[in-house]
Specification:
Number of helices: 33
Helix content: 55-70%
Strand content: under 5%
Strand order of the largest sheet: 2-5-1-6
Radius of gyration: 33 Å
Largest sheet: 4 strands, antiparallel
Structural class: mainly alpha
Shape: globular
Number of strands: 6
C-alpha cells in the first residue's frame, strides 16, 4: 500500500504513497460502481422479468414491486419504504439487515462530524523528528502525523468518546426498535410460533400419544393440539422420490404425444436388447403401482407411530435387525400417576391428537385404554401390506414375520394357535407387534422411532412457557427448542442424538480452527502485496517480476484488496459444509452458526492478519537495522493501514454491486437452463435441473454472508474513525449505497422465506459489542505508542463504561427479544375465539414422505380423451385406497395429513 525509503538526516524517512493509492482506488472502484448503476438503471426497465422477479412470479409477488421509479430516482426513492412494509413484504431478516446498514450510516455520519475538526488538527500538527519524513497528503491527515506526547491527542480521546458514546446510545435505540418488531413477528399466526422441537426424548415417551400426554401433564388438557415423533422412513422416501420421477417422465411423454401426435417409446434400460416400450403405457402402469405402494406404506407407518410402542425383543435370535432398534418399555412399565388427566366432556374425538380416545373421561396409559388404536386385525393387515411389497425383503425376515403375525393374531382373538415358540415370544401385545413387524420386514429401517419430534400447542403463552422451562431431571433430556418453519426442517438431522450432536460440534470447532490458521497464509500474502516494495524484498520471484515489468507495481497494489475479497468469497461455502456437522435442524440454524464463523474470520483474518502483515512486513527491513525504532514505526504504520482497509471496503462494495444488481450468475444459469434439461411443458421449464435455475426461481438471500461482511465495515469504522479521519467518508458512502442496493434486491428479487425472525440481528449486535472493545483496546495501545501519558488516564473510563455497557445489555435485552412477553401472549390468546382455525399448524410438522399425497397423476391439460381414460385409473385406484385407509388405520389424522401435503405438490 505504501513504500518505505530511507533518505532523511537520521538515515530513515517514511515516504508513503497512500494518496496515489487511494486516488486510484476511488477512480477504479468508483468508476465500476458508476458503470453498474447506469447499466442497471437501463436494464431494469428494459428487462423487467430479469430485474423485477417479484412482480410476475406468483408466489413471490408483492405490491412494493409495482413501482420501479424513474431512471435514477430509485437510488433515493427506495429509502421511503418503511421498516414495517419491508418486514411484511420482505421478511423480518430483510428488515433487520437494512436496519443494520442504516445504523452503520448514522455512525459514519458521527465519524464525519469528528472528521471536520480532527483533519485540521492532525494536518497542522507541529513537526518533529519522527514525523518530518511524512509528506503524503493522506498520511498527514492521520494520527501518524501527530508527534508523540502532543496535546492534540486530547482530540483523539474526545472523538473516541463521541463515537463510542453515540454507538452505545444507538444500540439502545435499535434494541427498542428490534424488540418491538420482533414481538410483532412472534404474534403472527405462523406454525413455528405454536410449536416446539423436542429432542433427546426419554424412551418412556417415544410415541405421539405419550409425548402429547407428557406436555398435557405439564400444562393442561387442552394445551396440546398434537405431538409428532420423527420416524425412520428411508424406503418410503425413496419410493416417493421414485414416484415423483415417474410422474415427471409420464408428463414428458404426454407432452411429446400432444406435440407430435406420435406415442413415444423407449427401451428398458435394465435389458440390453429390450424391446421398445410404449412410454405412456409403461409410466402409467408404474405410477399406478407406486401410488398403491406409497399409500399402503403411509397407512401402515401412520398406524404404528400414532400410539403404539415398540417392545423389548426377548429373543435376540428372532431377527438381528431388532438389536439395532430402540428398545422401549411396554405400557405396563410406565408410572401413570402423573398422567391421570381429565378431558372436558365437550372435547370431540376429532380434536384428540393422534388417535387418542376422547370419549373416555380419563386417559389411561394401558394399551387397552387406547380405544382408537388399530385393532389386531388392522395391524395384521398392515403387516401383510408391508410384508408383500414385491418380494423386496429377505426370505428369513419373511419367514419370521409370518410367524409373528400368526402369533399376534392368535393372542388377540384366541381364534388361531401359535405355530412355533419363536412366534410366541415375538409379540407381547398387538401394538408392539406392529412396530416389531415393520422392523423385521424392512431390515430395521422404516418404522424406527427417533428420540425427537415436534409438539404443537394451542396457545402462544404455552409455547413460550415450554421454551423457557426445564422439563426433565436428567440434563439434556426432553430438551425443548424453537421450532423452525415446517418447510425449513432438515429432517435428516432431527434424529441425531445428543452424543452425535456433541461430537459434531467438536468436529466443527476443530475444522474451523484449522481453517482459520490455514487461511492466514494466503491472506497474509495478499496483504503484503498492498506494499509492493516490501513484498519484493521478501519474495524473490516478485522482485524479478517487478524489475522486468515495473508497471505491475501499481496494478498489484490495487489488486491486493480485490484478491482478499475474492478469496474470502470462498469461505461461506466451506464454512457451511463445516456447520452441517453440528446437526442443525433448519437453514436458519445453519445461517446463524455460519454467521458467527464468518464474523470471526472477518475480524481475525481480514482485519488483524491484514493489519499486522501490512504493518510488520513494510517495516521489517528497518527493524532489522535498528530494533529500537519499533515503537515509532508501529505508531506510523498502523494508522496508515486505514488506506488499505478503505480499499477493501470499496472493492467489496463494487463487487457486491456488480454481482447482485446485474445478476450475472442467475441470468447465466437461466440462459443455460433454457437449453439444458426438459423444457416441453411449463412445469418442466420452471424446475431446476443440475443446479441450473430459471428466472422464476431466484436463490435465497445469503444473510449470513452479507451480514458478516458488515462486521468488517463496522470494525474498520470503529478502529480508524479517530485514527484516520477520512475513513468515515468512505464508510458513509458504502453504507448509503448498500442500503439502496439491498432494499431494491429485497423488494424486486428475493422472496421472504426462509425467515429466521431477525435472529442474525441479535448475533450481529453481540459481535458488534466485541468489536467496540477490540477497537478501543487498539486505540488505547496506539496512545501508548504515541506516549500519550496525560491522555491515557482519560481514555480508561471509556473502556470501563464500554465493559459495563456490555454486561448491562447482555443481561435482559437479548432474552426479552427472544420471547413474547406473557401479557402479550395472553392478549393474543384471548383475542382468538373457540372457532379459531388451527389448520395452518395441525399436520404441518409431518415428514415429507408421510405427508406425500397418496394420489398423484399427470397434469390434466396434457390429456386427451384416450390418455385421460387411460390415466384416469390412477386416480380411481388411489381414491379407493384413500377410502379404505380413512375407514381404518388413519382415522381423523388423515385429513390433516392430506391438508399438510399441499406444499409438496
Amino acid at each position: 500500500m505504501r513504500n518505505l525509503e530511507t533518505s532523511n538526516e537520521d538515515g530513515k524517512t517514511t515516504d508513503f504513497n497512500d494518496a496515489r493509492v487511494l486516488r486510484d482506488s476511488v477512480l477504479i472502484y468508483g468508476g465500476i460502481l458508476l458503470f453498474v448503476i447506469i447499466v442497471f438503471s437501463y436494464l431494469r426497465r428494459k428487462f423487467p422479468k430479469v430485474y423485477n422477479v417479484r412482480n410476475w412470479v406468483e408466489h413471490l409477488k408483492t405490491y412494493l414491486s409495482n413501482d420501479q421509479y424513474r431512471f435514477f430516482s430509485w437510488l433515493w426513492r427506495l429509502y421511503m419504504v418503511t421498516d414495517d412494509e419491508i418486514m411484511e413484504e420482505c421478511g423480518m431478516d430483510a428488515a433487520c439487515f437494512v436496519r443494520l446498514i442504516q445504523m452503520g450510516y448514522r455512525l459514519s455520519m458521527v465519524g464525519i462530524f469528528n472528521t471536520i475538526w480532527l483533519l485540521p488538527l492532525y494536518m497542522t500538527a507541529e513537526e518533529s523528528v519522527e514525523t518530518s519524513g511524512i509528506t503524503d497528503r493522506v498520511v498527514k491527515t492521520t494520527i501518524a502525523n501527530v508527534p508523540s506526547g502532543s496535546h492534540r491527542l486530547y482530540a483523539t480521546v474526545f472523538s473516541a468518546y463521541v463515537l463510542f458514546g453515540y454507538t452505545m446510545y444507538q444500540i439502545l435505540q435499535e434494541f427498542n426498535w428490534y424488540i418491538e418488531m420482533r414481538h410483532k413477528f412472534l404474534k403472527k399466526p405462523l406454525a413455528r410460533h405454536f410449536a416446539v422441537f423436542v429432542r433427546n426424548i426419554p424412551s418412556d415417551y417415544r410415541t405421539n400419544a405419550r409425548l402429547a400426554r407428557f406436555f398435557r401433564g405439564c400444562f393442561s388438557d387442552d394445551a396440546v393440539l398434537e405431538a409428532r415423533l420423527a420416524i425412520n422412513i428411508p424406503n418410503l422416501t425413496r419410493i416417493v422420490a421414485q414416484r415423483d420421477a415417474t410422474l415427471a417422465n409420464l408428463e414428458h411423454a404426454l407432452a411429446l404425444y400432444k406435440k407430435d401426435g406420435v406415442r413415444p417409446h423407449h427401451k428398458d434400460k435394465f435389458i440390453v436388447m429390450g424391446e421398445n416400450l410404449d412410454s405412456i403405457d409403461f409410466y402409467t402402469a408404474q405410477l399406478e403401482e407406486l401410488n398403491k405402494d406409497a399409500a399402503k406404506r403411509i397407512a401402515a407407518l401412520e398406524s404404528i407411530v400414532k400410539g403404539s410402542t415398540t417392545l423389548k425383543v426377548e429373543d435376540p435370535g428372532l431377527v438381528s435387525a431388532a438389536d439395532e432398534a430402540a428398545e422401549f418399555p411396554d405400557d405396563s412399565e410406565v408410572d401413570d400417576s402423573a398422567f391421570n388427566l381429565q378431558i372436558p366432556p365437550g372435547l370431540a374425538a376429532k380434536d384428540a391428537p393422534d388417535g387418542e380416545a376422547a370419549s373416555s373421561p380419563e386417559i389411561d396409559m394401558n394399551v387397552s385404554g387406547l380405544t382408537s388404536a388399530p385393532s389386531v386385525a388392522e395391524m395384521h393387515d398392515n403387516y401383510r401390506t408391508l410384508f408383500g411389497f414385491r418380494k423386496k425383503f429377505k426370505e428369513t425376515a419373511t419367514y419370521a414375520a409370518g410367524k409373528a403375525a400368526t402369533a399376534a393374531t392368535g393372542a388377540a382373538n384366541r381364534a388361531a394357535t401359535a405355530t412355533t415358540d419363536v412366534a410366541n415370544r415375538a409379540a407381547k401385545t398387538a401394538t408392539g407387534f406392529a412396530n416389531h413387524a415393520v422392523t423385521m420386514i424392512v431390515g430395521g429401517e422404516d418404522g424406527e422411532v427417533f428420540p425427537a419430534g415436534f409438539v404443537v400447542f394451542s396457545k402462544l403463552s404455552t409455547t413460550n412457557a415450554a421454551l423457557q422451562m426445564v422439563h426433565h431431571q436428567t440434563p439434556f433430556d426432553m430438551e425443548v427448542l424453537e421450532a423452525p418453519d415446517p418447510d425449513d426442517v432438515f429432517w435428516l438431522n432431527v434424529s441425531r442424538t445428543h452424543k452425535d450432536l456433541e461430537l459434531g460440534m467438536l468436529a466443527s470447532i476443530g475444522m474451523t480452527a484449522a481453517l482459520l490458521i490455514t487461511w492466514t497464509i494466503p491472506i497474509s500474502f495478499f496483504a503484503s502485496l498492498s506494499n509492493a516494495a516490501a513484498a519484493r524484498n521478501n519474495v524473490e520471484w516478485l522482485d524479478k517480476l517487478f524489475n522486468k515489468y515495473p508497471g505491475l507495481i501499481p496494478v498489484t497494489e490495487q489488486l491486493a484488496p480485490f484478491l482478499v475479497v475474492m478469496f474470502n468469497a470462498l469461505l461461506p461455502m466451506i464454512l457451511e459444509a463445516i456447520t452441517l456437522f453440528e446437526g442443525p435442524i433448519s437453514s436458519g440454524r445453519v445461517e446463524a452458526s455460519k454467521f458467527v464463523k464468518l464474523a470471526i474470520f472477518s475480524i481475525v483474518q481480514t482485519f488483524f492478519v491484514s493489519a499486522l502483515s501490512g504493518g510488520f512486513v513494510s517495516a521489517i527491513s528497518e527493524l532489522l537495522d535498528d530494533w529500537t525504532d519499533i515503537i515509532d514505526l508501529l505508531a506510523d504504520t498502523l494508522p496508515a493501514q486505514g488506506t488499505y482497509f478503505m480499499q477493501i471496503l470499496l472493492a467489496s462494495t463494487a463487487t457486491s454491486a456488480a454481482t447482485e444488481m446485474l445478476r450475472v450468475v442467475p441470468v447465466a444459469k437461466a440462459v443455460l437452463r433454457s437449453f439444458i434439461g426438459p423444457n416441453l411443458t411449463e412445469k418442466e421449464r420452471q424446475k431446476r435441473f443440475m443446479g441450473l435455475a430459471p428466472l422464476s426461481d431466484p436463490p435465497d438471500f445469503e444473510h449470513a454472508d452479507f451480514t458478516a461482511r458488515l462486521v468488517l465495515y463496522f470494525m474498520v469504522l470503529f478502529v480508524y474513525c479517530v485514527i484516520s479521519p477520512m475513513t468515515p467518508l468512505i464508510t458513509a458512502f458504502c453504507f448509503a449505497f448498500l442500503g439502496t442496493m439491498f432494499r431494491g434486491q429485497f423488494i424486486y428479487i428475493y422472496g421472504k422465506h426462509p425467515d429466521s425472525g431477525g435472529k442474525l440481528w441479535a448475533s450481529f449486535i453481540q459481535i458488534m459489542l466485541t468489536c467496540m472493545l477490540i477497537a478501543q483496546f487498539t486505540i488505547f495501545g496506539l496512545l501508548g505508542l504515541k506516549k500519550a501519558v496525560k491522555q491515557i488516564p482519560l481514555f480508561i473510563p471509556l473502556l470501563i463504561i464500554t465493559v459495563l455497557f456490555n454486561f448491562y445489555i447482555r443481561q435482559q435485552h437479548f432474552r426479552v427479544a427472544s420471547y413474547l412477553p406473557t401479557r402479550e401472549c395472553l392478549k393474543e390468546d384471548l383475542q382468538r375465539d373457540q372457532n379459531f382455525d388451527f389448520s395452518f399448524v395441525q399436520g404441518a410438522y409431518v415428514q415429507p414422505g408421510l405427508a406425500a399425497k397418496t394420489d398423484v397423476g399427470p397434469d390434466p391439460s396434457l390429456l386427451d380423451q384416450q390418455t385421460e381414460k387411460q390415466c384416469g385409473s390412477i386416480h380411481d385406484e388411489s381414491l379407493k385406497l384413500d377410502e379404505e385407509q380413512n375407514g381404518s388405520s388413519r382415522d381423523g389424522s388423515s385429513q390433516r395429513l392430506d391438508g399438510s401435503s399441499r406444499k409438496f405438490d
